[in-house]
Amino acid sequence: MGKRYYCDYCERSFADGAENRKKHLASVHHQKLRAAHYEQFKDAATLLAENRAKKPCRKFHQTGNCDFGLSCKYSHFTPSDIKELEREVFREHLEASGNKPRIEPDIDAWVQTKLSKYKEIVPAPLSFPQPVLPSVLMNIPNLPPSLIPPNASDLMNFDKNKSQWG
């Protein structure tokens, strides 16, 4: 058995030879499948320009099927498809010009939204619980300031006082 040629577009193989390959590459079936393959790699601007120039395919829009398929000389795009292509062309234009639209908010805005959500979930305490000095330390005279529990007023005004540790 001789060599076989496999066509990636048609997904079929046949006996390899100059005459067979030439006949296959010239066939209408191969030409259609090759065109369909490269059609998927066209950018949005090219697709939009081609489909704006074409009239809508009446049969495709009525039945959802067209006998001519990709070789149809009429457009199979709906108005919503055209709008989506226009948005895609606009996005590509912005990216090419360097004016990329900001999708995510900056870090300060993100922190502010997280803080506001946290404040909604966790209510602020109305009063601080009074710290209790352990009974072992109550009988010791002249406790260092670091062991004396703060008052509620000291806790409320901590930033204002900037108390000094002793």
Task: Please name the defining characteristics of this protein.
166 residues; 2 strands; mainly alpha; elongated; 9 helices; single chain; two-stranded antiparallel sheet
How would the global form be characterised? elongated
Distance between the first and last residues' Cα: 98 Å
Give average pLDDT, whole number.
80
pLDDT < 50 stretches: none
Strand order of the largest sheet: 1-2
Beta fraction of the residues? under 5%
How many DSSP helices?
9
Structural class of the secondary structure composition?
A: mainly alpha
What is the ordering of alpha helices and beta strands? EEHHHHHHHHH
Binned, the helix content reads 40-55%
CA-based gyration radius: 38 Å
Explain this structure to me?
Among the domains are: 1-41; 43-101, no CATH class. The chain has helices at 18-26, 28-39, 44-53, 58-63, 79-97, 107-121, 135-138, 152-156, 158-161, and strands at residues 4-7, 12-15. The model has no long low-confidence stretch (mean pLDDT 80). With 166 residues, the protein is mainly alpha-helical. Strand 1 and strand 2 form a beta hairpin. The radius of gyration is 38 Å and the shape is elongated. A two-stranded antiparallel sheet has the order 1-2. The relative contact order is 0.06.
